[in-house]
Amino acid sequence: MLIFLVGVAAGCAVMQDEEPEEQVIDDPFEEQEEEPEDLQELPSPCDAEDAADEREETEPEPVEQNDGEEGVLDEQYESGDYKVIANGDYLLALVTKETTLKSSYSPGDLRQIPSHMNPSYEMYLRSEALEHLEKLYQAAAEDGITLGIRSAYRSYSTQKGLFSDYVSRHGEEEANRFSARPGQSEHQLGTTVDFGGTAVDFTAEFGQTPQGKWLAGNAHKYGFALSYPQNKEHITGYIYEPWHFRYIGVEAAREWKRSGLTLSEYLEGKPQNFD
Q: pTM for the whole thing?
């Protein structure tokens, strides 16, 4: 989802007892003053017209977060305003604006996305998702399509800082259309990828590029489903994001494609477990 922005994950990454130093992900669409090191930025579709040169960045290795963090979602989570997802490892977990992942959840099998797949910075995905992303990437290359990876796994704390920044710049109502609150981002699952590799990444125009068209027609064959399709904001709660795909397994993705449903509608029909 958007991020938009991102997004924002694939050698093996292991959970560490000590939290690594936070690093900055700049907004490639907007010139701005240097941000504090604990704020990680991904491009907002609202800033696309002010595109600036993109710099290579790194995403911190995943670390567990504490349930007691203060923040907009933490308060609502503790008050029971959302259905709390019991198991984020479940590939068909329903992540929407009515549900939430725990702030302590992070996948235990994250692996780094290799450089030959053109990640914009150091990113991670869960092992199974990365295996199928590799197959997708190679199939696209055989068809003459070069993909880039713009965002993958993002921790709860990264999403928290990202959403807060968007709210400060665009207002909460607008930010809610293109960015998830912490705990409600599919990127926290470690199975979601924002694709790119074009001059119009993170914009609706990406859907009309060779990369966007190839993904729309082929990603499901490798287990990836488009989360936020065009003209479905009234269902998904998010604007059209032709770059945002979530791995749900090959069989499920093909079934989803045949159904004609949005991903959230499809997942609502699958068993869900909430705390």
A: 0.78
